[in-house]
Design goal:
The structure holds two protein chains of two kinds. By secondary structure, chain A is α+β, with helices and mostly antiparallel strands. Chain A is built from 25 helices and 20 strands. In chain A, the strands form six sheets. Chain A has a four-stranded antiparallel β-sheet, with no helix packed on it. In chain A, strands 2-7-4-5 form a four-stranded antiparallel β-sheet. Chain A has a four-stranded mixed β-sheet with strand order 9-10-11-12. In chain A, helix 11 packs parallel to helix 14 and helix 14 packs across helix 16. Classes of the chains: A alpha+beta, B alpha/beta.
Chain lengths: ~625, ~220
């Protein structure tokens, strides 16, 4: 067959890595025997028989899935699938599902294999692609096993409500109606000598009292549903679900062998249990009436984070979702603290610093926060704010955001200041170049207001930017400190790792990688005209304001993304294994190709450090 | 005489049978013709491009782009950017190209976008070149698109049946070139998309109903 000479095909292929690196003759050879197909959205391609070869998406988007439906990868225009079916006869039975209508080139297997042998760069590219997917594959398979086990076969005891709202049969319906309203529940269990006698639901009050013009002094005994359907706490969620739908009820009392009421399971509990979503968690956070209840709800948080990570959400998106949840949690804790301590004598802002401000929290992040007061407080008011802050910080700690070991918290009187007080502190750090000032700058200069009117905080930030722009010495100092730690490039040659303690021979992704990028981004961010708190936002802003070249900026963004992905993965692995979230990575867990990739990531950080040195340290070093 | 009728009837029945088979069991040749104008009586064919569909996929190896020899292209250069140099370099005798095409079409269904124009040119050159007559099935992606629009009662704007506009509705990429080969490939992709939208058991019969027919090319 003659070589294909269709301009539109060549024009496309020659822009796509790794085909772009082929010579014209090689490209023509690759294109021999190519066919094109159109795959309708939702249609599945099993990679077998004539389809067991490499495909390139010309236009469209596809998902690669395991036979059981686990997601391995999502790909679009210019990306390939079917590589593993050529290299290893598709041992995992992967399928490709079109997410959009897709136009696809199908290569002839023999020409592809020939090219793999002939051209090293070409082969390496596909080896990397395949390896990347294998890693995702192993994750999606372990995920598949975990999900169903988590759901229907869980005992109801794990998800039932244990704080019961109880009534006695001789009470009036009005009394229990008030109790139910206060407790925000839609049903109440009627007990006598601790034994379950009956249940009264909102619907009973409506249909048996209100609709019949009954009296509010009617007795519970005459209104309740006696001997209601109930289950033992050891029953499975699946049984509860079946029972509730068969008997058409939304409230299921849980009793022990002696008929003692021990819990309550509602349809809403079941729903919550089935789908742990960020939105639902936020919703629950806002409904809780006490910090201890809030803490209870927040126990789901780590599971949620791990779910987000295993579902392959982008690291930046994981950060945003977690920031939204922790912002909402912080606000709710403040509201509850205000209820407990009493209304504030003046306006105030609750500010967060560090990772929460940057929106890159993960498992086990600690709190960094402070208060901004409307004016200088009196002694009495100081006492009030001390109590309020203590209540907030302890509350957050109960909910899983650890207390700050460096005591950068609103509960520390040092970090409760007026706007001018904060300005003064910022100003001192900018003017001084003491190491402690720089340390403070690296935490406090990532700042966001999460409660109260954010205008004073914005003014504070504006003042800070102005101060810095007038002080190039400070930028130079900040640069020098950002360049002190070098990425562990030597790591791959002689395994230059944390050399002591528990994490001997492991790589600290957070402090040896991400923190360096955060520092560089802060440096550039603070010299921009527009303030951004997040690392990616800062790099993008610096690109926009032309402080950094597009290429350098994008490389740094990619580096941040890939390190953050590795960190989240490492943390969720540690969390599931040990219950603690460590960002240490064992290099043995990486394949040679991943090591190569990590090495180039560190290379990028090192390059940008050089660029920053050129920009901010010229004339100072 | 009677024998001829029997043979014609058998051929007709076979052809009816083949209409019921799934579309991908038949082979297709998607053709685009560049001409020097719109009038088959006066204007000439400048170039032809085609690509074949086999087992439901477009086979890029089958793609051909041929500029005809002696084509007078003086004033139409603006439309398809073919220069005299192209003709000198790649030019082929019209008759030999058409014989080759006839050979390919014996077992294939002809597919075009806007069939009336291409068919009128094919009929015309068949007469002038005195080629042996033969009968082929054809499909018109434009007619199929129009039938679909009528069925779903979706009004389509002026110009909405042009090749590019049709392709856009199926998420197909925009092609820069408009030579005969690119348009033939573009039409072939459009046909696959239209068929994909017809659902699983699309038969040739269904496509034919929407925009297809039979034509006899002859010297008379």
């Amino acid at each position: 067959m003659a070589a294909i000479d269709i301009p539109e095909v060549h024009k496309f292929i020659e822009t796509i890595p790794p085909f772009a690196s082929l010579s014209l003759a090689e490209r023509k050879q690759m294109l021999t025997g190519v066919s094109m197909l159109y795959v309708r959205q939702g249609q599945t391609l099993a990679l077998k028989d004539e389809a067991a070869t490499v495909h390139l998406i010309r236009r469209g988007a596809c998902e690669i899935r395991t036979p059981k439906g686990g997601l391995v990868d999502q790909i679009a225009d210019g990306e390939c699938f079917g590589v593993s079916s050529v290299l290893a006869q598709n041992p995992d039975g992967l399928q490709v599902v079109a997410m959009e209508d897709s136009l696809v080139y199908r290569f002839e297997k023999i020409h592809f294999i020939e090219m793999l042998k002939k051209n090293d760069a070409f082969g390496l590219f596909f080896e990397h692609t395949q390896h990347h997917r294998l890693r995702k594959l192993s994750r999606s398979q372990s995920n598949e096993l975990a999900t169903p086990a988590l759901q229907l076969s869980t005992p109801v005891a794990n998800i039932m409500t244990r704080q019961l709202v109880l009534a006695s049969p001789e009470e009036s319906v009005q009394t229990i109606a008030i109790r139910m309203t206060e407790a925000r529940v839609s049903s109440i269990l009627v007990v006598e000598n601790e034994r379950l006698l009956g249940i009264v639901t909102d619907r009973d009050l409506r249909s048996r009292i209100l609709a019949l013009g009954g009296s509010s002094s009617a007795l519970v005994r005459d209104t309740m549903t006696a001997d209601p359907v109930s289950l033992l706490p050891t029953a499975l969620v699946m049984q509860a679900q079946t029972l509730m739908s068969e008997s058409n009820i939304h409230h299921l009392p849980i009793v022990d062998e002696d008929q003692h009421a021990v819990g309550m399971l509602t349809a809403a509990d079941l729903l919550r249990h089935q789908e742990l979503s960020p939105l639902l968690l936020i919703n629950q956070i806002h409904r809780q009436q006490s910090i201890s209840r809030l803490a209870q709800v927040c126990k789901q948080w780590p599971t949620l984070i791990i779910n987000l990570i295993v579902t392959d959400m982008k690291p930046a998106d994981v950060g945003n979702v977690l920031a939204t949840i922790s912002d909402n949690l912080t606000r709710r804790v403040i509201e509850l603290a205000l209820e407990q301590v009493g209304p504030a004598p003046m306006d105030f802002q609750f500010m967060v610093f560090g990772s929460q401000a940057r929106r890159d929290q993960s498992l086990g992040s600690d709190q960094d926060n402070g208060l901004m007061l409307e004016r200088e407080p009196t002694t009495e008011e100081s006492t009030y704010f001390a109590a309020l802050s203590e209540c907030i910080c302890q509350g957050l700690a109960q909910c899983g955001i650890r207390l700050c070991p460096g005591n950068i918290m609103a509960s520390n009187p040092e970090w409760r200041r007026t706007q001018s007080g904060w300005q003064q502190a910022f100003s001192n750090w900018v003017k001084s170049s003491a190491p402690s000032a720089l340390l403070h700058a690296s935490i406090f200069f990532d700042i966001r207001c999460v409660y109260g009117n954010n205008e004073p905080v914005d003014q504070l930030i504006k003042g800070l930017q102005l101060e810095i722009s007038k002080n190039s010495v400070f930028l130079a100092t900040l640069t020098r400190s950002a360049l002190v730690t070098k990425p562990p490039l030597g790591f791959f040659r002689h395994f230059l790792l944390e050399s002591s303690g528990e994490h001997k021979n492991q790589l600290d992704l957070k402090h040896q990688g991400l923190a360096l990028i955060n520092d560089l981004a802060r440096l550039y961010g603070l010299s921009c005209r527009t303030y951004r708190a997040g690392t990616l936002g800062r790099i993008e802003q610096a690109i926009r304001e032309k402080l950094i070249s597009v290429d350098t900026g994008r490389n740094l963004i990619d580096a941040w993304d890939s390190l953050n992905g590795l960190r989240l993965e490492a943390q969720s692995r540690h969390w599931q294994a040990t219950g603690s979230a460590s960002a240490y990575l064992d290099p043995k867990a990486l394949s040679p190709l991943e090591r190569k990739h990590l090495k180039s990531t560190f290379g990028i950080i090192s390059d940008v450090q050089d660029v920053a040195q050129q920009r901010f340290l010229r004339g100072y070093s | 005489m009677a024998w001829n009728i029997v043979r014609a009837l058998t051929a007709w029945r076979e052809s009816q049978q083949s209409m019921k088979c799934p579309w991908e069991e038949r082979d297709y040749l998607v053709l685009d013709i560049e001409t020097s104008g719109l009038d088959a009586k006066q204007d000439q064919i400048v170039s032809v491009g085609w690509v074949c569909i086999h087992h439901g996929v477009i086979e890029l190896d089958s793609a051909r782009h041929i500029v005809l020899e002696n084509a007078d292209i003086g004033h139409s250069v603006g439309i398809h950017m073919i220069t005299d140099a192209d003709v000198l370099e790649h030019g082929k005798k019209q008759q030999s190209v058409l014989r080759y095409l006839r050979h390919l079409l014996r077992h294939r269904i002809l597919v075009m976008h806007h069939a009336p124009l291409e068919l009128s040119f094919l009929k015309q050159v068949w007469q002038t070149e005195k080629l042996p007559s033969f009968s082929i099935r054809w499909l018109d992606t434009l007619a199929i698109e129009r039938a679909k629009a009528a069925r779903s009662q979706q009004p389509i704007q002026e110009g909405g049946f042009r090749l590019g506009a049709c392709r856009e509705r199926y998420g197909l990429p925009e092609y820069q070139g408009h030579d005969a080969l690119t348009d033939a490939l573009a039409t072939a992709e459009l046909l696959l998309a239209q068929i994909a939208y017809q659902g699983k058991e699309c038969r040739l019969h269904d496509l034919n109903q929407m925009g297809g027919g039979r034509v006899t090319l002859s010297t008379r």
